[in-house]
Design goal:
44% helix
């Protein structure tokens, strides 16, 4: 079964959208997983932040999901 990761960059209406997309992915016979970036509380990327925080450690739980994924859907707000 193909695994599809939905990367969610915000909450509220976009979370509702991610849930609907997840349902459709399931109907298509794939396994969806939602990764909520807000919950991860990641630092803003910079070379200084990269020296202070190891991205592999910050994403330890999510890395296997990302590596095993057959595809991705990115849902982010538009301003």
């Amino acid at each position: 079964m193909k695994k599809i990761v939905i990367v969610l960059a915000s909450e509220l209406k976009n979370l509702e959208l991610a849930s609907k997309v997840s349902e459709e992915i399931s109907r298509q016979g794939c396994e969806p997983t939602i990764i909520k970036l807000v919950d991860l509380d990641l630092p803003l990327y910079s070379s200084r932040a990269e020296k202070l925080h190891n991205p592999s450690e910050l994403l330890a739980k999510e890395l296997p999901l990302i590596q095993e994924a057959s595809g991705f859907v990115f849902i982010a707000p538009e301003y």
